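lol ok so funny story. i was supposed to be doing the assay writeup but got distracted and ended up predicting the structure for this chain instead. priorities right. anyway since i did it might as well share w the group, maybe its usefull for someone
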Amino acid sequence: MSSEETDRFYAGHASEYAAAGSHRDNRWRDAFLSGLAPAAAILELGCGGGYDSAAMIARGFSVTPTDGVAEMAEQAQKRLGVPVQVLRFDAIDYVSAFDGIWASACLLHVPRADLPAVLQRIHAALKPGGLFYASFKAGEGEGQDSLSRYYNYPDTVWLREAYAVASWASVEIEEMDGLAYDKRPTRWLHVFARAA
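and the output, tada:
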């Protein structure tokens, strides 16, 4: 069970994953964008096929799309027509650079031991008052799914403790049932955090 195995999955399935279309619920993206000023600077982490970046760009936001897997970044770049940086979560080194950071269904692959440090890097990359969204598959401990992808599977208590390593002005977590890429029913944790 490793994040390397997860990377290999996305590298090997990049074209079909990108072609599958967005399986994400737009209500969370809309809520995120409504919390930002027009034309705000947004960093997207784990952009996958680039669907969310495309929607945000179409609405006039200044988006920096990134993905940790080169093959996925290449697929997103084809869709977006703009450079997509290969950026691993542990290499985020921006400082007060973004009004918002969007991380839909990607930080759930970060090993539990590493997630607090990644969240600190994300907090540092936000401008004061910046908004951060991330979604996680809920659970009671790390494991793999039916496609052999690693997940940290947090519950709300563990997730709040992970976020507490940074000085957020607020952290709101909402639980909701939905589906995932593998079409299985999934309990999701949607987190909005505002930088101090």
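The chain has one domain: 3-195. The chain has a mean pLDDT of 91.
back to the writeup now i swear
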